[in-house]
Design goal:
By secondary structure, the chain is an alpha+beta fold. It has 3 domains: about 140 residues; about 100 residues, ATP-grasp fold, B domain (D-amino Acid Aminotransferase, Chain A, domain 1); about 60 residues, no CATH class. The chain is about 30% helix and about 30% strand. The chain has 7 helices and 17 strands. A 5-stranded antiparallel β-sheet has the order 15-14-13-16-17. A 4-stranded antiparallel β-sheet has the order 7-12-8-11. A hairpin with a 4-residue loop joins strand 16 and strand 17. Helix 1 packs across helix 7.
């Protein structure tokens, strides 16, 4: 059995599932918001013996001992009753149940990590910048502050951008979509005091790089976002009428060596990495996202990453099956 943990609207997951079907793999299951866990049993027995299993909304029973390969793409171990709407009077009760479920999820992730081709790792963006500098990567000057005076003093004559400290917001409520992006800071409209925020020097770029790292290999794409005023600061301000030109890209060896060291420190088997190439041809590291989109690199560059991931899952499944038969 192959288990995929994802979110229901992730296109790359759907494409991997299509490849699994094409390759004749019938025994695979996806956990997402539409196929949540409905019941679970974790039995810790004497002499270090245990049994772990759970049912999904689809009716499938997952015996963790029978799993041969796991892909943690994104999303979560969702539990059905915790996804229902709650009233204000139930808030404390639900918070407690969520805390209980979080402990169960941590245990499940620990138990299936050895089966997975891809480690379940989250990252702290500030720690990542520290580690990037430690391995010799160039990073933008970064300041976390809550005072306009401190901000102006540190970036006196420099253009600066504001970025999220944690993960970006991408939420839809009714007919509105809320998301966070990188923007250039206008000093005139900054209040004297504000919630601690992250600021970086705006780097004059030649082009951007989106790199997908998968089990030791880099798949890179150059994005010529600086040619369009709409996308100069953040290519995610997509110009759908005239999209940015993108091309496959080969990272120099010295960058692959440094990035591979960083991935080892962060304990990541797969991730999306954002870089900038300056007009002086310097490489500047921006950030890494363990569950970043890779379809945007796969399709235009003909990397077929979905097929490569599928093959890794199949290989892992076959290897585990052979070991069990011996």
């Amino acid at each position: 059995m192959i288990l995929i943990i994802s979110s229901f609207d992730d296109l790359s997951t759907h494409q991997v599932c299509e490849w699994l079907i094409y390759e004749g793999i019938k025994k695979f299951t996806v956990i997402n918001q539409l196929n949540a866990i409905t019941s679970i049993e974790i039995h810790l027995k004497p002499n270090n013996k245990k049994s772990i299993g759970f049912y999904l909304q689809s009716g499938h029973f997952i015996n963790v001992d029978k799993l041969k390969a796991v892909w943690y793409r994104r999303g979560d171990f969702f539990y059905g009753s915790l996804m229902q709407s709650k009233t204000e009077s139930q808030t404390i009760f639900f918070e407690n149940l969520n805390n209980e479920w979080t402990t169960i999820k941590e245990f499940l992730l620990h138990e299936i990590e050895g089966i997975s081709n891809f480690r379940f790792t989250t990252v702290n963006k500030l720690l990542v910048l520290n580690h990037a500098a430690e391995v010799g990567l160039k990073t933008p000057e970064t300041l976390i502050c809550s005072s306009k005076v401190k901000l102006v003093d540190n970036f006196l004559n420099k253009r600066i951008v504001n970025k999220p400290i944690s993960q970006c917001i991408n939420k839809q409520e009714k007919d509105k979509v809320y998301n966070t992006k990188t923007i250039e800071v206008e000093r005139d409209i900054i209040p004297d005091h504000f919630f601690p925020s992250k600021f970086q020097e705006l780097i004059d770029k030649k082009y951007e790089l989106r790199v997908f790292y998968l089990l030791g290999t880099f798949y890179s794409m150059a994005i010529f976002s600086q040619l369009d005023k709409k996308t100069q600061i953040d290519f995610r301000n997509y110009n759908y009428e005239k999209p940015n030109r993108v091309v496959p890209y080969i990272l120099p060896d010295f960058m692959e060596i440094k990035l591979r060291k960083l991935m080892q420190i962060l304990n990541l088997d797969s991730a999306s990495i954002d870089l900038i190439v300056t007009k002086n041809d310097d490489y500047v590291f921006l950030e890494v996202n363990p569950v970043g989109q890779f379809g945007m690199v796969s399709e235009p560059c003909n990397y077929n990453l979905e097929k490569i991931i599928t093959q890794h899952l199949i290989d892992r499944h076959e290897e585990a099956t052979r070991k069990k038969e011996k």
